[in-house]
Specification:
- This protein is of the alpha+beta class and 204 residues long.
- The chain has a single domain, classed as 2-Layer Sandwich (Beta Polymerase, domain 2).
- The chain has six helices and six strands.
- A six-stranded mixed sheet has the order 1-4-5-6-3-2, sandwiched between helices.
- Strand 5 and strand 6 form a beta hairpin.
Length: 204
């Protein structure tokens, strides 16, 4: 059944003790914010094609998410993908095909909408994050709402770009991890999402 408004509104709270680590990255993408790259949409299409070829009928949807999906938004050189499958818990059906297609299985978070996380960080010059979800994941809906709001709200797009640059600069200064960088943006992301939710009538 589709995600409820309550599920969409519920924020994600990262709890490292609930992460089941499978492997680690072979290389760590730099926390560097680049100017918008017109190649990012095409890179996503190439990744989408490989995923669909590898998994076939298991795929319900492959969506470009994250900052590289928003035209005009500066971003790290990472293509984020929301991959919705018929059953995210059925790892036997999709882990091996994804790995054979070049995506490495890094971790699972069963309590976060059965999230599974894959990366491709070789031999490409850019990186790919693949987030696997089951049907009707509220997180996929949140990603789409955030993207659509930035596309129609220049002030929030500029605000988010500013916060991203500041978080990346701080990461370079003190040696933050990728999770540290992400958490530095959380407050602003929640504020922007609140405006988007209000616009949709989800909150008053």
């Amino acid at each position: 059944m589709p995600a409820t408004v309550a599920q969409i509104l519920a924020p994600y709270e990262y709890k490292p003790e609930l992460v089941e680590r499978i492997a680690f990255r072979t290389t760590t993408p730099p926390i560097t914010i680049l100017k918008p790259n017109p190649e990012w949409p095409q890179r996503f299409e190439e990744v989408k094609e490989r995923i669909e070829k590898a998994l076939g009928a298991l795929v319900l949807d492959v969506a470009h998410s994250g900052s590289t999906s928003v035209p005009g938004l500066p971003a790290k050189d990472i293509i984020d993908v929301d991959l919705t499958l018929k059953d995210a818990m059925d790892e036997a059906s999709y882990v091996k095909p994804l790995e054979e297609a070049g995506f490495r299985f890094l971790l699972r978070e069963p309590r976060w909408h059965q999230h599974r996380f894959f990366v491709e960080d070789w031999p490409k010059a850019y990186h790919v994050n693949v987030h696997v979800w089951g049907p009707d994941s509220p997180e996929v809906v949140r990603h789409r709402i955030f993207r659509d709001w930035l596309l129609k709200t220049p002030a929030d797009l500029e605000l988010y770009a500013k916060v991203k640059r500041e978080a990346a600069a701080q990461a370079a200064l003190v040696g933050d991890s990728m999770m540290d960088y992400t958490q530095r943006k959380d407050k602003t992301i929640h504020e922007i999402l609140e405006r988007a939710f209000r616009d949709l009538g989800y909150i008053e």
